[in-house]
Hints:
Blueprint: E1 17-18, E2 21-22, H1 25-33, E3 37-41, H2 43-54, H3 62-70, H4 72-75, H5 77-89, H6 92-112, E4 119-123, H7 126-140
Parallel strand pairs: 3-4
Antiparallel strand pairs: 1-2
Helix pairs in contact: 2-6, 3-5, 5-6
Amino acid sequence: MKNRKSKYIFVEAESRRIGKLFVPKCVKDQMALGYQVLIDADIDFRAKHLISEYTDLEPGNTELLEAIDRIRRYMGNEPVEHLQELVKDGDFVTVAKELMVNYYDPMYDHSIKKYDFDKTIQVDTFKRTADLLKVWLEEDLMVD
């Protein structure tokens, strides 16, 4: 981070704990002092991105089946078994959308209420989102 070209660093809003790891308190404290930007995208865009990043697109993906099984205590047996069947059938779009609607989005919606956002950007492409962030920093906040 010493060689960065800007004094700004963009980080995803995370809780102090990420899986088995912890964000250091000093980092978390600095995150809270920074500008808060909500980057939002429609469910189809998000599903496409999740599938490209997190699956090998093979029906029966063992790693994905195990990950879904780990959230059984939060979602219940029937929804998890339904999602696992969809993975076995290779229906990753439905899996991604159902996980977002029934598991991840409710958690994020709870967290989002903690923030007073300085800016909201609707994602249509990652490049355009990065460009909009850059314009916001340079023109609206007048920083370089």
